[in-house]
Amino acid sequence: MFAFSTSSSSRSSPKVSICLPTCNRPELIAQCIDSCLAQTYSNLEIVIGDDSRDARTQQLIAQRYPNEPRIRYAMNRPSLGQARNVANLFERASGDKILLIHDDDFLTTDGIEKLVSLWTRHPQLEVAFADQYEADHTGAVDYDASTRLNTAFRRTKDAEGLQPLPGRTGLIQMFPNNGWMANAELVKRISYREQYGMCCDFVFGTELCLAAREVFYLHEYVSVYRKTATSISHSTRGTTVAASVSAYAFVEALELPPQLEPSRKLALRRLVPIVVSVYAKNREPLLGFKIALTHLFAYNYGFSMRLYYHLLMLSHAVVARRPQAAVAVAVAATAAVSAAVVDAVADPSVVTDRVTDHSELV
């Protein structure tokens, strides 16, 4: 565990419901539960929803925590799936605040205390989140990787505090998929929705931040993100039902106020190249070409080599499906990119965009 020096919680402190969805990972969940029970903040419950196909997790909890009143365990029969399991946990939660932690991750010893304390300083606060450590499958923390992880998602010292545009934090994926805390009423109102498949974490985080009046980012570590090949999204990665594909469609369709349009653009800078690559690999080149050529800002307006690599991938996909159409598609794509580059050189606003925002370019 990772301990930090903070003041102790008072008896009047709000009750925190730790919502812990799990599925077929008894070898990892014990460390997660232990980290919840070891918190310096005492007024909490651990609400577990088990979607496992067998009874191993149920047996582990019964044997390891037989007399622990803070644990409220339930096995789902039939299994609910990721989104419905989390939504059900939110409904079962009895606390004033809700914190979500996945079964392969865990909390720092005073993670909850740090997050709860923010409400004392900001009584109108609705959502709070902080930094994540990155660990390998064994739980060993990589400190350099942790810094890179948080920096990649704009979780840096200069961003600490109440967020001027709360909705922006969810759109640009600054908001983490777990280890956050929020008012229970707001969490239950937004909840998880099954229709978004593997990107339900991202959709929930975005909608939560869009709905919140105040969101606070704390530049301190409160949780540990474990990199593992058994994550829920791993089995769909690189397919057209991957989280990135659903997230792209969600961001495109969102109705946003004008002040959040730059945030949509930042989100698409990250998502578009991933989605185009997915469509190329899955031999759906026409969709890939359409997305790439209508979002050239995601490729630095033609000045990114990644664009040409993706166009080559898409052309290969065309050849695989319709050899006779490959030349025509390649010519059309080249002409469109060339025109976009000419426009970029001629348009001062595009040049300004290229110079001032390099954060999402890859």
UniProtKB/TrEMBL annotation:
<dbReference type="InterPro" id="IPR050834">
    <property type="entry name" value="Glycosyltransf_2"/>
</dbReference>
<dbReference type="InterPro" id="IPR001173">
    <property type="entry name" value="Glyco_trans_2-like"/>
</dbReference>
<dbReference type="GO" id="GO:0016740">
    <property type="term" value="F:transferase activity"/>
</dbReference>
<protein>
    <submittedName>
        <fullName>Glycosyl transferase</fullName>
    </submittedName>
</protein>
<dbReference type="Pfam" id="PF00535">
    <property type="entry name" value="Glycos_transf_2"/>
</dbReference>
<keyword id="KW-0808">Transferase</keyword>
<dbReference type="InterPro" id="IPR029044">
    <property type="entry name" value="Nucleotide-diphossugar_trans"/>
</dbReference>
<feature type="domain" description="Glycosyltransferase 2-like">
    <location>
        <begin position="17"/>
        <end position="142"/>
    </location>
</feature>
